[in-house]
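Give me the fold.
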Amino acid sequence: MFVELDSALDLPLFRQLYEGIRDAVLGGRLAAGARLPPSRGLAAELGVSRNTVTLAYDQLVAEGYLEGRPRSGMQVAATLPSRAGPKPLRSSGARVHRPPLLSARGRVIASAPMPGSAWAGKPPRPFRPGVPALDLFPMRLWSRLVHRRLKRPPPLEYGDAAGYAPLRAAIAEYVSAARGARCTADQVIVVSGSQQGVDLAARVLLDSGDEVWMEDPGYPGARAALLAAGAALVPVPVDGEGMRVTEGERTAPRARMAYVSPSHQFPLGATMSASRRLELLRWAAEAGAWILEDDYDSEFRYSTRPLASLQGMDQDGRVVYIGTFSKTLAPALRLGYLIAPAEIAHAFRAVRAACDRHSPVLDQAVLADFLTEGHFARHVRRMRHLYAQRQEALVGAIRRSLGDRLEVQPTGAGMHLVGWLGEGLDDAAISATLWEAGVEAPPLSRYALVRPARGGLLLGWAGYTPEAIESSVRRLAGALN
């Protein structure tokens, strides 16, 4: 027999027999129509139970390699995939055309830089930006809320594509009070983090080739999602007042969309001034364009109250607002929200359903309880105080250990700051050196479409204790030396 079985292998005997017969069929050693031994006879020949042979035969019949016929027993199926192999090259020497493995859009997405790809799945270490204080996540409280929800769970059938209704109502109430947004629960779409929010907005509002103003430097995740939609990105520089709207109007006055993070620009940290906000809203209204407002960490302001959202200033329904719980609670929750203009909210709901139906309903229900019972507001207040202390620890440690070799200034908001390097230094090379030394400090150039005139390092502090910050700054100083 052409099949050898080995009981010492981890692979079950019926699977070994199945693979042996399948390979013989595909390799041409068993031709179409060839008869196989009866299960009882083959079992005796191989020294296995008849059930082992029956299981292998049944699987091969199910997959179309064998067919059983009355009074003829088991035989190789008459119709099998061709075993002739690829056709030879033409006599002219020209190769047969083969389509690319990926679509044009697939190639763009695969090559687009994504934040965190270098450290995906690895535990955070200073100074990875965007990491909240995971050690202080209210796990006991969250577990209690989950346990309580399991006793009276939400409906287990498919839910509303826009999200769990009580959560949407809680989000609408929260952003209206805390961010000055103007919306109802019907405008809220629950998404799996701000990344999906950007992707959803791009699917609904953009056609391939549409121009989009992109803050430069800016968030790579948004850049990747917009490129995936076929957008033509227009880099618009950022200064101390946020996106330079006049520069966008000069470069691409008829752009379809502008992506901005006005409350705390990522990664430079600027707050868009009131005059720039009004300029941007005027342009969008006149051009019939959309503004995608990414409000990723607006809860954490240390010198003043959180600023009102751009969406709350919009009189023409041109702003799509995106928020996330990844920075305030934990990235692993994968829950965020999008607030669509009322007249197109139905389209966002439909596209959300086409993408992946909805986010897990049980998680949404627990988060709704966390919000409505006041736990979220208390957690944010606690983190705001803690993060202010941790920023102070970072700035102090850098100034003591590095002096003017890394220029840092405290920021009034957010969870990271930029450490500016000396003129002419390559921030990407320095970042790679720091990585080898155990310090995560992404280079500013990684976030830019147009290379910045001066290099810098992004330094997150929110997720690290003062002791960890101090020791990591010493390693940073050693590597820079």
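The radius of gyration is 29 Å.
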